[in-house]
Amino acid sequence: MDLKSKEYIDKIRSLAKQKNAVIFAHYYTRPEIQECADFIGDSLALAQQATRIDADILVMCGVHFMGETMKILCPQKKVLIPDMNAGCSLADSCKAEDLAAFINEEIRKSENEKIIVVSYVNTSADVKALTDVVVTSSNAKKIVDQLPKDAKIIFGPDHNLGSYINSVTGRNMILWNGACHVHSRFSLEALLQLKAANPGVEVLAHPECKAPVLAQSDVIGSTKALLEHTIRSSAKRFIIATESGILFEMQRACPDKEFIPVPPEITEGVGCSCNECEYMRMNTLEKLYNCLLNESPEMHVDKEIAEKAISSIQRMLEMS
Ligand code: 13P
Ligand code: SF4
């Protein structure tokens, strides 16, 4: 790490102490942000941890919906997010008004049959307000398994995750057709080449990847589940199909192991040499420092929406 980053981290840490602030970071953020944070986690762990923390200020280094979820769970606390423009292509693929129309259409078709709306945490507060229970990639199977067997379930927005959960639960949930632009572009060809070049090496994939990639994977799970697997396993090498930010924590936890990232599909004009979520990378040390110093940008959620959204998030925490 360069000197400038180290100086920033020292300044951020002392400011956080002075302001009684706690810094949270998702595994997909830049290594220096993870280095600076008090808590690093997947989206479920970050939400759970936020409810247990006694601090005046919570800073969420992740993406917009993570800050929103934190504010909904901790309405009395000041929730800051280093860059309000750090969005999520998956959350953007499901607008509340479109979901409401979709739900109404299913209600009309189902002639009063009970419909349960399950939404992935990667959604706006408005979508969570229309939802019965929120899930993350960590707990989706566990929660769907607890829903009544005869219920008609709408699952959104991630189609890949929904198909995967259908396959492991035997349910036939009606799926929204959304996707994460990072995970959906993992290349099956590149994965097959990596497997051929590294025989016997386990493939670890996030369930937001497409079905053909998941079909070639040995372990499918949330970022935290994949990390825990690499720590527990006696294997020394792993092929990783998820956002490459997780490699920082995997390498830190297992310095003697090797992690081989699956490259994305390179389509004309799109694609990069590594699988990075540009929204997560919008969290920089400079923005984090300024956000703590100025206590801005601050996350606000409309009171009425937050009141509706909180029950679906709390239901998830109870059922996890
Ligand atoms: P996790 O639930 O594994 O943290 O994933 C969040 C996310 O944004 C995946 O792209
Ligand atoms: Fe959203 Fe995909 Fe980025 Fe996760 S990796 S925050 S799902 S755009």
Short description:
45% of the residues lie in helices and 15% in strands.
What can you tell me about this protein's structure?
With 320 residues, the protein is of the alpha/beta class. It folds into three domains: 3-87 and 280-300, NadA-like (Rossmann fold, 3-Layer(aba) Sandwich); 91-179, NadA-like (Rossmann fold); 183-261, Rossmann fold (3-Layer(aba) Sandwich), CATH 3.40.50.10800. It has 15 helices and twelve strands. Helix 11 (211-215) links the parallel strand 9 and strand 10. Helix 1 (3-18) runs parallel beside helix 14 (285-294), helix 3 (43-52) packs parallel to helix 4 and helix 12 (223-232) packs parallel to helix 13 (246-253). Bound molecules: 1,3-dihydroxyacetonephosphate (13P) and iron/sulfur cluster (SF4).
Query: How would you spell out the order of helices and strands?
Result: HEHEHEHEHHEHEHEHEHEHEHEHEHH
Q: CATH top level of the largest domain?
A: Alpha Beta
Taken from the alpha-carbon principal axes, the silhouette is globular
- Uncertain segments: none
- Which CATH architecture of the largest domain? 3-Layer(aba) Sandwich
- Kindly state the percentage of residues in helix: 40-55%
Count of beta strands: 12
What's the number of structural domains? 3
Distance between the termini: 37 Å
Tag the structure with descriptive keywords.
320 residues; alpha/beta; Rossmann fold; 3 domains; four-stranded parallel β-sheet; binds 1,3-dihydroxyacetonephosphate; binds iron/sulfur cluster
